[in-house]
Amino acid sequence: MGVDFAFLDSGTGGIPYMLSLKEKVPAASCVYLGDTAHFPYGQKTQKEVVAAASKAVELIQKKWSPKTLIVACNTISVTALDDLRALFPKLPIVGTVPAIKLAAKVTANKRVGLLATNATVSHPYSQKLIDDFASDCAVFKRGDPDLIDFIEKKLFTASREERMAAVRPAVDYFAANDCDTIILGCTHFTHIADDIQAAAGDKVRVIDSREGVANQALRVFPGNQNCLQDQKGAKTDGGAGTNGAASSDCGLSSAPADKSFFFTAATREQEEEYRAMCERFAIPYGGLV
């Protein structure tokens, strides 16, 4: 029997998205693949992104047979989601896109910052989101591959001073443009959301799409009708959700490697970083696949 939810990203960025879904539905079995052999996706052409992502999905299906796939990567989502859905028509696939609609609702001065990969900030899909939902806002885009690289390779062994120094260029850019809202348009940035918020100050809102992605994944999950209701009770009554078992109405399975983190390539130093991340989040270290 396959896992309930599989998560795909270029590296560690989607881990907070997996943990967000698990918080909502503790009984859901999850597995995570960082396609680190093709990191960073944000510097690739559309053809390269589609080719790499489709191979990663094939690997996920072969090893874990998920009932639903969450593409926890903005770059893959804005670039290749339609292609993946066409290639894997029987697999429900949920994408992750910048929270531009939410930003337009919460900004007070109508000046919004979008922090993402170069591919995401320059993609026509991102501009369409701006045109559709934030046409009355000035949106200042920043692609930041250096910060993404820092998060993937150094974050979990870095000091607070190193983390704050890493986020400072992006925060200063948005401050110079008087942005009162910063969209984390790359899932990697959710790892340092608190650092970005601290550097930006209390007058700036830092937002991402974790809540919306988790809700959509539960909506499209096969047999989803009773999942949320069942798990609300599970959190407080010591029943389903405390040990991986779930109501048959929900269709959730039990997975011995729940929340395991796997990757497709790594140096010795990167493996140390990934082990540190797994220890921090108390998730199993799956290793190389």
- Tally of DSSP β-strands: 10
Query: Structural class of the helices, strands and pairings?
Result: alpha/beta
- Mean pLDDT comes to 90
How would you write the strand order of the largest sheet? 4-3-1-2-9-10
The H-and-E topology, N to C, reads as EHEHEHEHEHHEHHEHEHHEHE
Percent strand equals: 5-15%
Shape: globular
Q: Count of helical segments?
A: 12
Low-confidence spans: 231-249
Percent in helix: 40-55%
Q: What's the gyration radius in Å?
A: 18 Å
Q: Report the end-to-end length measured between terminal Cα atoms.
A: 19 Å
Largest sheet: 6 strands, parallel
What does the secondary structure layout of this molecule look like, with pairings?
Elements lengths: L4 E5 L5 H10 L5 E5 L11 H19 L3 E4 L2 H14 L5 E2 L5 H7 L4 E6 L1 H5 L1 H10 L4 E6 L1 H9 L6 H17 L4 E4 L8 H8 L4 E3 L2 H11 L6 H11 L22 E4 L4 H14 L3 E4 L1
Helix pairs in contact: 1-10, 2-3, 8-9
